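worker-03 picked up job from queue 'complexes'. Input manifest follows; two sequence lines, order preserved.
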Amino acid sequence: MISYQEAKFRSLKDLVDDQIADHFVIDSSALGTHF
Amino acid sequence: MRPSLARYNNLDSSKIRADLHSTKAFLEFIKEYGNIGATEAVLEELAVKNDLLNSVVNSYAGTRNRSRQRCQTTVTSALRKQKKALESILQTEREIYLTLKSRLELEDPDEDTLSIVEDLVINAQSNKIKRKNYNDERIVSYAINRAFLNDEFVAIITKDFRFKSILTQTQRSVDSENRFLQLREFLQEGKVIVIFGEKDKFYVRYCSGDFDKNYQRFQYSKY
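worker-03 finished. Artifact:
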């Protein structure tokens, strides 16, 4: 069973893998420790 | 992480471990994908965050808050482990910062057009309350400018509700002026996207191609 954090992380990777954009800009609210 | 709790050596070990895990996972993630970047505004905020984290790490398990046993000041093993994990989080956060900074430095931004887009985005906002800064507007401006100059799709990854509102209000603004016809049509092609992070998932919250001026005219006052 995966935690909600891992599921959340996987959902983001899926969006990047799906190439919905050429470039991704990350906002500080979504960065690192508070991810 | 709350500095007020750190001041009294009262951080939750499981929370520190989870933060360390997510921070390392995030670093691996951005290293894996070279098309993830940040803006000057994001790096400024990240630098402030790292300074705060640095002060927490330096003071954690410090002399002032050590427990007294047998007339000696001691640091428990648990506290030492927590401090070590905090140091590791800080180191990882710094690496994230440096990775994103080096990517931004490799870009060749057109500062003139970025400045024009920033003015456009900031002036387009209906809420004229003076803000501490316009970092969110600057991030949206960067995304629009980059997408437009390179004719590419740019997505903003965020956990902040404001980004959709900033983008839609910008589209409302360009929709009403013919001099922005080219930018209006470009955005209508869906070239700027907002990816939003909720508790358990990220999803596409808004795409500029979904802009409906009639709908927005009615809805935007909610934000």
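worker-03 released lock.
Chain B has two domains: 3-106, 111-222.
Residues 3-106 of chain B form one domain.
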